[in-house]
Amino acid sequence: MVKPTRARNLPLLTDEEVEARRPVLLAGIEQYNSGYFFEAHETWEKLWLRSPWPFREFLQGMIQLAAAFVHLKRHEYPGVIRLLDEALAKLEDASMTMGVDAKRLVAEARVARAELAALGPERFEEWDQRRIPQIRLLPSKKR
Question: Is residue 7 a part of any domain in this protein?
Fold first, then answer.
């Protein structure tokens, strides 16, 4: 019996193949910006599984950012802070972002993390969720 090939066992994508899958990244951004954090996480994970470095690390940061806000919606404070920390560590030095304004995203995520941490586990649910960072794209000439 032959086992089906799983995505994690497939070869990594070439740069051209990554670029061809940009619509997957954009679909996840639309989901994330609409508040569908779990769905964005799932969408990006499909792309992440076969992506090469450094784009793979950037995607992992995006996935962790989305997961942080899944934890926020589930009222799970430790997961929010831990995942924001992990996301920021990967996003702050991202070199291959496929046009995402990573600098702005990192700055806004840092503010969110600081505000949530200041409220602490007893009061973090008071945080205004309209302050969840939105993912924006750079103008075409800056990509």
Answer: no
CA dist 65 and 73 (Å) reads: 13
Least confident range from 7-16, 43-52, 94-103, 118-127: namely 7-16
121 beta partners:
none
Task: For tokens 């794209």, name the residue.
Answer: 137
3-state secondary structure of 37: helix
Show Cβ contacts of residue 73 under 8 Å, excluding neighbours closer than 6 positions.
37
Cβ neighbours of residue 46 closer than 8 Å, sequence gap 6 or more: 7, 24
31: CATH: 1.10.3450.10
- Quick check: 85 and 113 in contact, CB under 8 A? yes
Phi, psi (5° rounding) for residue 137?
-100, 150
Which of 66, 68, 67, 58 has the alpha carbon at shortest distance from 91? 58
Domain that holds residue 58: 14-137
Number of domains in the chain: 1
Is the pLDDT reported for residue 124 higher than 70? Answer: yes
Q: Residue 100's beta-bridge partner residues?
A: 137
pTM assigned to the model: 0.91
CB 75 within 8 A of CB 122: no
